[in-house]
Amino acid sequence: MNIPSELKYTKDHEWVKLDGDIATIGVTDFAQSELGDIVYVEVETLDETLEADEIFGTVEAVKTVSDLFLPLSGEIIEFNESLEDEPENVNSDPYGAGWMIKVKCSEVSQAEGLMSADEYKALIGA
User: Fold this and answer.
1) Fewer CB within a 10 Å sphere, N or C end of the chain?
2) Domain range for residue 34?
């Protein structure tokens, strides 16, 4: 199970990489393995400003569809358009080519409430 220590995590199995006030967000290795083969990623909230814990999109796997929850309030400024043609990148490279969105955070301090890699490992029993 790959859980990079430099990232922050949520109880909804998403990861967050902060660079100033820009957060890159995707689903964790654990989440993609639980979902199975991902066939579609939908984000219709591009250019919208959402609050933390609002749904920003969905990820569809062969077995199920799961909502994606925004970990930090802000404006969704970018969607990883390569996922339209290659949603399997979420399975093969969840922390790299499989990233989902970038958000311009309205309150970077919210990141303090996210989990560390060790806390996330404890959550999933890794």
Assistant:
1) N
2) 8-107
Among residues 80, 86, 76, 78, which one has the least CA distance to residue 40? 86
Q: What is the CATH number of the domain that holds 51?
A: 2.40.50.100
DSSP state of 28: -
Q: What is the pLDDT along the chain (126 residues), one digit of tens a residue?
A: 899 999 999 999 999 999 999 999 999 999 999 999 999 999 999 999 999 999 999 999 998 999 999 999 999 999 999 999 999 999 999 999 999 999 999 999 999 999 999 999 999 999
User: 73: closest CA among 108, 42, 101?
Assistant: 108
Domain count, the chain: 1
Q: How many helices (H) and strands (E) does the chain have?
A: 4, 9
The predicted model scores a pTM of 0.96
Q: How far apart are CA 44 and CA 79, in angstroms?
A: 9
Q: Select from 66, 70, 42 the least CA-distant residue to 55.
A: 70
